[in-house]
Amino acid sequence: MTSRLYESMFLLDNTAVRESWQSAKEAVTATIEKHGGSVHTARHWGEKRLAYPIARRHRATYLLSYIELPTDALPAMRRELELSERVIRYLITLTDEVPDAERELTAKESSGEVVIPEPPADDAPEREPRAETSEDEDDGRDRRARRRPPEKDSDSAPDSAGSDDAETSDEAKED
Amino acid sequence: MARRMQAPIASKNCDDPPIDHKEIEYLKKFLTPHGQILSRKRTGFCAQCQKELKLAIKRARHLALLPFVG
Fold first, then answer.
1. CB-based burial of residue A120 (10 Å sphere; 0-12 exposed, 13-18 middle, 19+ buried)?
2. B7 CB-near residues (< 8 Å, 6+ apart)
3. What letter does residue B31 receive in the DSSP assignment?
4. At a CB cut-off of 8 Å and minimum separation 6, what does A136 contact?
5. Which residues 2-21 in chain A show a CB within 8 A of chain B?
6. Per-residue pLDDT for A154 more than 70?
7. What ipTM goes with this model?
8. Which residues in chain A touch residue B67, judged by CB atoms under 8 angstroms apart?
């Protein structure tokens, strides 16, 4: 029964983290140890807005952990993680070694040097000003809308009051 | 007339450590505005590094660090 070194990332539900980060983290480490694994490092990697909703949530807290697990324990642990309500996603990858930086950061966190802020509400906007790509898409729509009005006048569909642009163009195609 | 292709974005030595799926600031450079992975022509990577990039981006997408679309 060989043991291998894995890098694991867990996405934790913010509601569980709001109650207590420590207990959420310990729930995960307990699961690992229950299956015969040993946790080398485990730390708060960040609380972020997700690129797409997962389980209808828009934000989650990331837990990065380097662990050692026996190979035959992996399927059983995955099953337990799938069923967990706290862990909404996970990624377990093989690695060669634990980076020193991770050990230091874990030590800092457990010694209480780092204060982990409470997760903001689910619809809180991302603080970074980078998320401006949506504005580019809006410009495209505006340009199309500006071109549309002449076609709308010629179609003259009074029944479709307040309809989307998509619906109007569908009607034109059906004609 | 074909649009002039821009110079490749970045280069990486194959000996360097493999691309990390956690370095999203770095990975974002290799996505189109719509979130698609850039081709080897655009990235300028060798075959092996391009594979690493693909894997890293796909892992990051799984962790919702990068979008699939958008």
1. middle
2. B44
3. B
4. B33
5. 9, 11
6. no
7. 0.86
8. 51-52
Mean pLDDT of A162-166: 47
> Which chain B residues in 34-53 lie under 8 Å from chain A, judged by CB atoms?
none
Residues of chain B where predicted confidence (pLDDT) is lower than 50: none
Cα A106 from Cα A28, distance rounded (Å): 15
Chain B: residue nearest A12 by CA?
B63
At residue A84, the pLDDT reads 95
**A50 vs A161, more confident:** A50
- Which residue on chain A is closest to B67 by alpha carbon? A51
User: Cα angle vertex A11, ends A6, A12, to 5°?
Assistant: 125
Of B22, B33, B67, the CB nearest to A52: B67
